[in-house]
Amino acid sequence: MKTIFIALALLASPVFLVASADFTAFDAVMAQAEVRLDRSKVRHGNASSFDPAGTAKVATVRSTEVYNATPAGKTIKKEGVEKGSARYNKLIRQATSTYKAALKKVANGSNYVLIVEAGGISGYTNVTDATAAIISAI
Description:
4-stranded mixed β-sheet, Protein Binding, DinI Protein, Chain A, two-stranded antiparallel ribbon, alpha/beta
């Protein structure tokens, strides 16, 4: 019984409130530290210069959808071009060139610091899905 009374007295004390305020500040720092960026999924921009504590604009992209929307990607799908064939390799290079140009156009036009594959960044608040805009830029 004495233990419960002491615990209640401590909970009501100003010492607990100070500790609580410090814990909230700690939570804010930890939330900032929990931004996760998978560098292997960065499609545009420099991951090394990205500041997770900043407010820079970041976009995500679903690359498969963009590739499928390119003229070369549509040809591959429509004609059922066999993966690994000379024609496939030529078309996929064209699709990649179109993809990169559209990515760059949208990144520069919208001031994105990074464009990351969907799922490649978490815990960052200023993230937009740019897939539709990139497809439109093709």
